[in-house]
Amino acid sequence: MGEYSEALSSLEKALEIQQKTLPSNHPSLATSYNNIGLVYNNMEEYSKALSIYEKALEIFQNTLPLDHPLLATSYNNIGMMYKNMEQYSKALSIYEKAVEICQKSLPSNHPDLATSYNNIGSVYNSMGEYSKALSIYEKVLEIWENSLPSNHPRLAASYHNIGLVYDNIGEYSKAFSYYEKAVEIWEKTLPSNHPHLATSYWCMGSVHENMNDYAKALSYLERALDILQRALPPTHSNIKDVKENIEIVKRKL
Q1: pTM for the whole thing?
Q2: Domain 1-63 has what CATH class?
């Protein structure tokens, strides 16, 4: 958490200087707000992040064309905060604004358009509307498979998301198969302590737990915990959740 506090302090000092030297609606101020919002998001202080991201959006709305990609990015950032705070209908409404902009400004097979669809899929998944989520995630995968290299991290994210939906509807072998595809790409393209890898191992552990294969479940969960402890502050909720999951599995062995 200390690293985040230091980052926040540096970014806020830089913002203070910019506020004294730039017009109040200068796009560089919006970029600084976005950077500060990202730190608050990583600290899981979502309402603070939301407030900061909204300041960035306001500047972009006043200075950029209505179909500018940076506006879509701002909507995606705000949508993510609402999703993290479990305000799903608000998240959906904001994410749809991002999609609307991307549809006007990008080709139908553009990877960034697929990213906006992907965000909507994640909200449907969180809302338990799994058939809608799966349909969107498959559309995203099709765009990314046709426009990105076969080992691109976005493809891994897509496989992982489809795995999540199958996991949620109890189709565990299908879920595991998609998680494996994601891990295969992430192991080749990401640092060994990247949280994405931890998330996949965690999900693979949960699948094995649901299939009553507790020894394999424990192995994957311990790998997830090892990465999270190297990658995140010790107070992060994911570390606590995986530790609890490990204790549950140990009792089932």
Answers
A1: 0.84
A2: mainly alpha
